[in-house]
Amino acid sequence: MNDNSPAPELHAAADEPHRKPVVAIVFGGRSSEHAVSCATAASVLSAIDRDRFDVVPIGISQDGRWVLVADDPEPLRLTADHTPSVHGETTAVLSTDPAAREVMIFPPNEPPRRLTAVDVVLPLLHGPFGEDGTLQGLLELADTRYVGSGVSASAVMMDKALMKVVFAAAGLPVGPHVVITDKEWRRDKAVCLETANGLGMPVFVKPARAGSSVGVVKVDEPADLEAAIETARESDPKVLVEAAIAGREVECGVLEGHGCDPARASQVGEITVTGDRHTFYDFQAKYLDTDAQLSCPADLPPEVSEEIRELSVKAFEAAGCEGLSRVDWFYEPGRGLMLNEINTMPGFTPQSMFPRVWAESGLDYPSLITELIELALERRVGLR
Ligand SMILES: Nc1ncnc2c1ncn2[C@@H]1O[C@H](COP(=O)(O)OP(=O)(O)O)[C@@H](O)[C@H]1O
Ligand SMILES: [Mg+2]
Predict the structure, then answer these.
(1) Which of 209, 271, 274, 280 to mutate to test the pocket of ligand 1 (most atoms within 8 A of CB)?
(2) What is the pLDDT of residues 207-247, one digit of tens each?
(3) Whose CA is closest to 23, among 376, 383, 343?
(4) Which ligand places an atom closest to the C-alpha of 126?
(5) The CATH classification of domain 177-243, taken from the options 3.40.1410.10, 3.40.50.300, 2.30.30.140, 3.30.1490.20
(6) In a 3-state reduction of DSSP, which class is residue 346?
(7) What is the pLDDT of residues 112-129, one digit of tens each?
(8) Ligand 2 centroid – CA 284 distance (Å)
(9) For the structural domain made of 157-174+246-378, what CATH number should be given?
């Protein structure tokens, strides 16, 4: 993405009763999923209901600068030939003053000024420093409403080791795994390797706090384990080694209920990876080629679909999620379900699983965006 010219000035005033809610779309970010987040922002900028909402797009560059970007989806699209990223001249920050709820901009060679009030933030960030409670903490400090889970659910669901602790405590099925912390690895690699080898082969080695399959390696031979752990450690010094599960990958969308209503589960979707280029659902299969097929509703016995929907809501509630989550399962006929993970900000382009399963459940992409913003607008600020 080239330098973005600033968005047009917005003049919404907090005391103007009939103005549209202003949605700050925050995307990009410091994680390895920067480009994926840009792609999501492109889709949302194209589809958000402009009759209902005013929009201010704020990008976070890979080095963590917040900048005002043009309200234009085109340079943000992710294709095999173009990896989008955030650049910009004009720093844009959300005020942390709970009384203000506004965006301040700092144009080069001009005095800083207030750009607009902000009613709700749509954080379209994946991975650490965005999906993991850090941004959510900033917004809590500012008494600013935002889409999605709060600080603790975001942080715990970002960390695949802590996530499994919560799931196991709630009686949800999690597979055999070993956690290798940075200190343990640096203290004694041999002990770590021996413990991980105890799981048998094959295993999946993954960074505890990442996403989009970045850093995930399938290991078939004990001799390859050390290199895989080093690869995962490039994304996160905390690593998980999991016994491989030979199941179908099925996923369920969950949306928070309005008011005191319980959370809602979508139809169940399934991912099938075809061809011999991928041994699992890796980054390339997720975003760049056509070897991964998403189908919805998944061809499952009705009682299995119903169990997935029920347990997905249970996982969402156990984790204290808000707004939205995608709950990912392995299903082995004859052996049942194993919970893989919750994503508190799942992939969100119209082709992604979360919007697809909700479209199949009667909520199309623009309506889903509106629903998420309305859920966020109706919730209290402060402890909930
Ligand atoms: N224990 C496992 N058994 C089988 N496949 C796995 C396992 N863990 C991960 N995978 C494969 O790797 C992919 C990415 O792993 P996942 O834990 O979902 O990480 P991410 O947060 O990056 O999506 C999964 O979608 C699946 O294809
Ligand atoms: Mg996953």
Answers:
(1) 280
(2) 999 888 889 999 999 999 999 999 999 999 999 999 999 99
(3) 376
(4) 1
(5) 3.30.1490.20
(6) coil
(7) 999 999 999 999 999 889
(8) 13
(9) 3.30.470.20
